[in-house]
Q: What sequence folds into this?
């Protein structure tokens, strides 16, 4: 791999993870026992489950019809029973040479109703979602290592990655991330592969990828390009002809571009809403001087996360979708949106639209608080803010030692992951209705004890909920130093066990 030096491990989160890894033993055996433990600890939880509604007395709204090439917006239904069981488990082998400071990177986790897929190094693998655990459905060998991924998936289960082909024999340069691959997640079939134009400076550290209706868009700081999903035809592209350049995009139901002008530490930023088919600018919002970094956690409604005079995100800015006018500024003092914190703060695999502690809905945004140290108080909480006004309109509290993490929207409700603490208080995925403050359990389960800390950390693990299943997939895979030849947990999926009589 030509990804340059490994990320610095001298961060607070990394050191905490190191302590946890020292306790990581019997990984494979403990995972298999997790389903048995889950069945034993759910009796109390079943008493407060309300089947058939979201805690409102009304049925969960059905998802609006979407075109096949739109980025999906799945609305989940409460399962028959929240009792959890393992439905997918894959352990990665041949990691004896991969240590914590030299891990095997595994960027990208996507799920459909049938398959959970993982990007690992230079391949993508699909695993069946059924209680047979490690059932591999397909493997897509790529022509190079993965450089950038997107969380976006189309309504019919397609997504894209950017890859880094091997250095050609006799070439003076290598490590260029200049190939886009579009694939079908249910079948593992590559639909098309295209070489990005003038991408000589596209690397794993600066390449960002996103999807919007019918369009795949990539930016790498020295240029950008958009392709038609169906045909792979290039729709438009830009190259750097001035001091301003496209750094990355946010997709979904609209397309926003983060444009950077000049060089750090004196760079300035602006955000543009683009026509996805032509690349033409519809409106522009200029960020104030002094902003050190910026992220685009949502394109519709437009929400910006900015680090003003600091390396950490200090504020969220919400904009009017039609004209790009500022609506509200929300201070992030005391909050943890977790923008750009993956891979020990290294900008690998695309960071512009990734904020793992923040979820944006149609009229509300949800951000987790910083972790609390008072053991008698909730470990953290999630606060809902009105997008237009910037005022707080709701709060979902965790529990002592049980942090809560916002996952994604399900219609107008928020899906939340809550950590476990012991065999009596299991981990859970719940749905929160902020208008009624009602909580509905979707899944109750136990994670393997030796892996629970890492699997519950959204900076280290992708936590994906889709069509009644939750998946935990570590972004970095490293051997157990005491047992370097043992396989390492790569993805664990939990679904409902159902009511059985």
A:
């Amino acid at each position: 791999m030509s990804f340059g030096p490994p990320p610095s491990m001298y961060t607070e989160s990394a050191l905490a993870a190191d302590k946890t890894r020292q306790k990581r033993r019997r990984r494979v055996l403990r995972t298999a026992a997790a389903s048995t433990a889950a069945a034993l600890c759910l009796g109390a939880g079943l008493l407060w489950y309300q089947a058939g509604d979201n805690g409102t007395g009304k049925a969960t709204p059905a998802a609006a019809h979407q075109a096949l090439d739109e980025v999906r917006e799945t609305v989940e239904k409460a399962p028959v029973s929240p009792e959890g069981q393992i439905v997918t488990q894959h352990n990665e082998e041949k990691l004896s040479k991969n240590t914590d400071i030299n891990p095997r990177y595994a960027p990208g986790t996507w799920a459909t109703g049938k398959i959970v897929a993982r990007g690992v190094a230079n391949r993508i693998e699909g695993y069946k979602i059924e209680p047979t655990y490690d059932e591999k459905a397909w493997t897509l060998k790529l022509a190079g290592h993965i450089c950038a991924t997107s969380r976006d998936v189309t309504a019919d289960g397609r997504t894209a990655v950017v890859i880094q082909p091997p250095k050609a024999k006799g070439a003076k340069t290598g490590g260029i991330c200049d190939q886009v691959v579009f694939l079908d997640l249910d079948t593992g079939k590559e639909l098309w592969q295209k070489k990005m134009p003038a991408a000589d400076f596209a690397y794993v550290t600066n390449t960002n990828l996103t999807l919007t209706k019918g369009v795949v868009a990539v930016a790498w700081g020295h240029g950008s390009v958009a392709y038609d999903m169906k045909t792979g035809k290039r729709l438009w592209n830009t190259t750097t002809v001035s001091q301003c350049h496209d750094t990355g995009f946010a997709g979904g139901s609209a397309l926003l571009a983060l444009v950077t002008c000049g060089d750090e530490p004196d760079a300035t930023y602006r955000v543009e809403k683009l026509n996805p088919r032509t690349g033409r600018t519809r409106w522009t919002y200029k960020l104030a001087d002094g902003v050190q970094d910026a992220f685009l956690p949502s394109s519709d409604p437009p929400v910006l996360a900015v680090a003003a005079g600091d390396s950490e995100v200090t504020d969220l800015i919400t904009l009017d979708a039609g004209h790009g006018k500022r609506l509200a500024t929300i201070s992030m003092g005391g909050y943890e949106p977790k923008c750009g914190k993956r891979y020990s703060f290294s900008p690998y695999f695309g960071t512009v639209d990734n904020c793992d502690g923040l979820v944006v809905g149609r009229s509300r945004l949800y951000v987790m608080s910083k972790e609390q140290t008072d053991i008698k108080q909730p470990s953290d909480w999630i606060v809902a803010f009105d997008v237009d006004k910037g005022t707080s309109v709701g709060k979902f509290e965790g529990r002592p030692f049980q942090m809560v993490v916002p996952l994604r929207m399900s219609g107008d409700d928020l899906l939340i992951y809550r950590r476990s603490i012991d065999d009596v208080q299991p981990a859970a995925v719940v749905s929160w209705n902020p208008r009624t403050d009602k909580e509905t359990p979707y899944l109750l389960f136990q994670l393997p004890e030796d892996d629970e800390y890492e699997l519950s950390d959204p900076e280290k693990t992708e936590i994906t909920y889709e069509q009644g299943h939750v998946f935990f997939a570590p972004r970095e895979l490293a051997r157990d130093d005491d047992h370097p030849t043992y396989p390492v947990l790569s993805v664990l999926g939990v679904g409902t066990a159902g009511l059985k009589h």
